[in-house]
Each structure stands twice: as C-alpha cells, then as structure tokens.
Amino acid sequence: MFQLGTALLDACVLAILARSDTYGYALTQSVRGVIAVSESALYPVLRRLQKEGLLTVYDRAFNGRNRRYYQITAGGHGRLTQLCASWAEFKQKVDQVLEGGVS
Questions:
Q1: Strand 55-62 and strand 65-72: pairing?
Q2: Contact 69, 23 (CB under 8 A)
Q3: Across residues 83-101, what is the average pLDDT?
Q4: At residue 71, does pLDDT exceed 50?
Q5: Domains in the chain, please, with CATH?
C-alpha cells in the first residue's frame, strides 16, 4: 500500500462521511480498506477535522451504550471537493509517469 499522508487520509474520511454518518469503529474499518491506519491514528484525525469545522459529532444509544457518530459539514464537503480535485491532478501526473508518458 502507498502511504501518501494527511491529505489522502482526510479525503478518505470525508468521502466516507459524505455517503453517510458513521461511528468511529466502522469508519476505521472503511478507511483500512484503502489505507493502513490504526484506530489510535484515526481518532486524532477525526478530532482535528472536527476542530477545523469539517465534522460534527453526536451520540446515539446502541445496546445500552453510546456510539459517537461523525457527520460531515458544509465546510467538509467543500474541503472534500478541493481534495478530490488535487487528487485527480496528482493521479493524472503519476499515471503519466507509470505509463511512460513522461521522460
């Protein structure tokens, strides 16, 4: 797996949350399908995104406990759009190199 840093992790988290609100463990499992990340590494990212106003959180009862759900904000959607544009540009350049189009 490629490790590309914070921007890619942010994009993956925001993209997953753009589809539906998700609790921490489920979010971690979804992100792990693409990027090698531990729960202990993901929670600081979630707190940072929340502090930046890109996510909100709420609790919902589940089997006698509360689950913390994460929800993307309008600002989060805007950031996701920016990150997707940056990713498309980056991917195009890497694809050119890998396919032999750049010398």
A1: antiparallel
A2: yes
A3: 90
A4: yes
A5: 6-98 (1.10.10.10)
